[in-house]
Amino acid sequence: MFAPTDAPLPFALRDAAPEDFEFAEALTRNNMNGYYERHHLVWRADLFFVSWRESENYILEADGQRVGVMRLTEEGNSLHIRDVQIAAGYRGQGAGTYMLETAHRWARERGLSELQLRVFVDNPAARLYLRMGYRVTGPRITQIGAIRHMTRRV
């Protein structure tokens, strides 16, 4: 959790604009390509587009440059984190923590009780999610195979 005395990070989130779609899709596709190949999945640009239209979409910037994407949907009493994508040169610098903490704060401000996300079992980001209080949840279809469903109380 961030305290007001923590040093500010060089990141800012802003609402995505229509012209950010290409950047977001390319970053997501490139970041996920290895997982899709290893788990015998096929990237579907049409499904990403539909999901983009149904999501709240945010662009992560550092020094005025687009370096990441966060996509959210509100489902019942839960804020579902659809994507946290960070450009390779900005990983390991607190960008993921910044986006996850921002999502947690927004869920709390909206009066929601839970955050949820899905992650490939071989994605190193799963360790960050565990450190931040996310836990693999009960029997769901996403527990089968390569993807785990995780939740965190708000």
TrEMBL record:
Keywords from the UniProt entry: Acyltransferase, Transferase
Q: Does the keyword Glycosyltransferase apply?
A: no
What Gene3D superfamilies does this protein's entry cite? 3.40.630.30
Keyword Transferase attributed = yes
Q: Which Pfam families match?
A: Acetyltransf_1
Top-rank taxon, per record: Bacteria
Single GO term (MF)? acyltransferase activity, transferring groups other than amino-acyl groups
Where in this chain does the record put each N-acetyltransferase domain? 11-154
Q: What is the protein name given in its UniProt record?
A: N-acetyltransferase
According to its UniProt entry, this protein's organism is Trinickia symbiotica
